[in-house]
Amino acid sequence: MQNSPPESIPLSKPNIGAKEREYVMRVLDSSRLALGPMLDQFEAQMAAFCGVKHAVAVNSGNSALHLIVRSLGIGAGDEVITTPFSFVASSNCLLFENAHPHFVDIDADTLCLDMNLVEEAISPATKGILGVDVFGSPAPWPQLQQLATQHSLHLIDDACEAPGARIGDTPIGAWGDAAAFGFYPNKQMTTGEGGCITTDNEEIAELCRSMRNQGRAVRERMEHVRLGYNYRMDELAAALGCAQLERLPGLLAARARVAEAYNEALAPYAADIILPANPSTLPDIQGEQPIPITRSWFVYVIRLNEAYTDDARDLALKLLRAKGIGCASYFPSIHLQPYYRERFGYKPGDFPVCESISNRSLALPFYPALLPGQIFTIGDILGEILPQLPKKVKTF
Ligand SMILES: *Cc1c(COP(=O)(O)O)cnc(C)c1O
To answer: What's the CA-to-centroid distance between 390 and ligand 1, angstroms?
Structure first.
């Protein structure tokens, strides 16, 4: 048995209220537990929220990504340009279809794909670009869209970390051919397990709808016209989703306030740690007006600066956990995951910007109900820990 420290603050915590209970109870009382009216309602709400024609709800973000890849016909021998700085699902969805994730390194400021490297990476085998809205910060979709159009490429948004984010007036969920959302309990909104595809493309929507439901052409018929899966979202999850989506603006505002409080509490350590960037516009394209963006806060990730040794971050995680502070490394580089190393032979040094940021980053507790007092306590604990972390020896 592990000793539980006196005050323990989790890394994340779902925010479930009266509305969630009411909607879930309504489903339980109705006896209709799958493929019912809540699913239809949740999809209608998601489509409206993202400003798109179609939303197809599924049982995870992973399923949403997989169905998008399949519905676009991306398969064996195809390459898709994507980022190694993400959650593993954004690359795995390509491997499911025997397509190849062509990683390019990231931009150290935006943490998204380095746009200078994306264009260079395009080859005749390239079928698409899969961008990720890392930590809820929108990827440069207008630029990615321009490249995709120029080279006739599919464009997929892994929007799992960014519900409610916007570029100009256009919500995340409306960029690219289709976008994937995930509703795991650590996300800004949750359905327990769950996910959703949003798109304006009717063909993609119909294919995804059929493939999530065992390849049926029509919802209730026992006729299976294509290879399908059971990736359905059940009525209880959809009920949670309806309630969470209705409350999302308030939940996002609360998350933004928590981020503000962290910025204040951690300001005294600015010499040692890098706080999350929160740009109000996309990186400037020369000669064009900067485009305003709205971030959706998913996690609060800080970074030890270059003065610390390569193993300082892991020690920081250990010391924080010993004090009862939930924390995690966000993200470990995908290409250095054991499965990817073994299968593709990747090694440290392949994507140096991604690796350097990945090795120095850590996520702190982050959820709407986190109180200012707790945030300042975390700041104080971090202040005690930082001097214990090893720094590189200066050589002149
Ligand atoms: C959460 C997440 C997913 C999907 O996760 P599931 O657990 O399958 O719902 C995919 N990509 C990113 C970047 C994520 O953060």
So the answer is: 33
- Say yes or no to pLDDT of 21 above 90: yes
| Distance (Å, whole) CA 179 – CA 164 | 13
The neighbour count for residue 347, using CB atoms within 10 Å, is: 9
- Which pair of tokens denotes residue 2? 């592990």
| 194 CA: nearest ligand 1 atom | 9
Tokens of 251: 């939940």
Integer CA distances (angstroms), 214 to 65, 70, 220, in order:
17, 14, 11
Using a 6 Å cutoff on CB, does residue 130 contact ligand 1?
no
Q: What is the mean pLDDT of the chain?
A: 96
259, containing H or E segment? helix 235-266
CA 250/CA 257 separation, integer angstroms: 11
Contact, 231 vs 67, CB < 8 A? yes
Dmax over Cα atoms in the chain, in whole Å?
75
Q: Whose CA is nearest to atom 5 of ligand 1?
A: 61
- Rounded Cα distance between 243 and 317, Å, is 34
Rounded to whole angstroms, the Cα distance separating 46 from 59 reads 15
DSSP states of 180-240 as a string?
EEE--TTSSS--SS-EEEEES-HHHHHHHHHHHBTTBSSTT-S-B-S---B-BPPHHHHHH
The reply to whether ligand 1 has any atom less than 6 angstroms from the CB of 301 is: no
For residue 393, the model assigns a pLDDT of: 85
Condensed to tens digits (0 to 9), the pLDDT of residues 184-215 reads 999 999 999 999 999 999 999 999 999 999 99
Q: Residue 170 above 50 pLDDT?
A: yes
Ligand 1 atom with the smallest distance to the CA of 184 is 9
Of the ranges 95-109, 214-228, 304-318, which one carries the lowest mean pLDDT score?
214-228
Residue 160 CB–ligand 1 contact under 6 Å: yes
User: Which helix (H) or strand (E) element contains residue 71?
Assistant: helix 61-71
182 C-beta closer than 6 A to ligand 1: yes
Mutate to test the pocket of ligand 1, among 85, 92, 161 (most ligand atoms within 8 A of CB): 161
The pLDDT of residue 284: 75
Query: 62 alpha carbon to ligand 1 midpoint, in Å?
Result: 6
Which DSSP category does 304 fall into?
E
CB 383 within 8 A of CB 268: yes
For the whole model, what pTM was predicted? 0.96
